[in-house]
Amino acid sequence: MESIWTLESDTESTQEDDKEKDDKEKEKEEPTPEQQQLDDGGYIDYLSLQRFILSCQDIESGGIADRPEDMPDLYHLFFGVAGLALIGDPRVKRISPIYALPQEIVDRLMLVSEL
């Protein structure tokens, strides 16, 4: 699984690398099918939410904070990653909104909700 936390490279990139990076950025900008499915009339801007969560990462020590430049904590890490999963970020596995576990685990354990 590709990490959602990446450090910028110290090495110089070639034009080909730059083109590849631009293509990846464009892919990130396009809503995923999950994001389109969750679109309930425009109340949530999923791409802005994704950008905000990722801007709250602490590249040096890891984790996610409640706001950029704040101290990360486990609570915001959990809900930040859960938020990315629920809005369909392709780098994060889908989670069960009921159990807050990866959906594949819920399926494998055959957990059933009584809702």
TrEMBL record:
InterPro entries from the UniProt entry: PGGT1B-like (IPR045089), Prenyltrans (IPR001330), Terpenoid_cyclase/PrenylTrfase (IPR008930)
Domain Prenyltransferase alpha-alpha toroid: 42-100
Tagged with keyword Kinase: no
Gene3D superfamilies listed in its UniProt record: 1.50.10.20
Location of the region described as Disordered in the Swiss-Prot/TrEMBL record: 1-41
Coiled coil regions, renumbered to chain: none
Cofactor(s) it depends on: Zn(2+)
Domain of life (superkingdom): Eukaryota
Keywords carried by this UniProt record: Metal-binding, Prenyltransferase, Repeat, Transferase, Zinc
Compositional bias segments (type: Basic and acidic residues): 16-31
Recorded family membership: Belongs to the protein prenyltransferase subunit beta family.
Protein name: Geranylgeranyl transferase type II subunit beta
Organism encoding this protein: Aduncisulcus paluster
UniProt lineage: Eukaryota, Metamonada, Carpediemonas-like organisms, Aduncisulcus
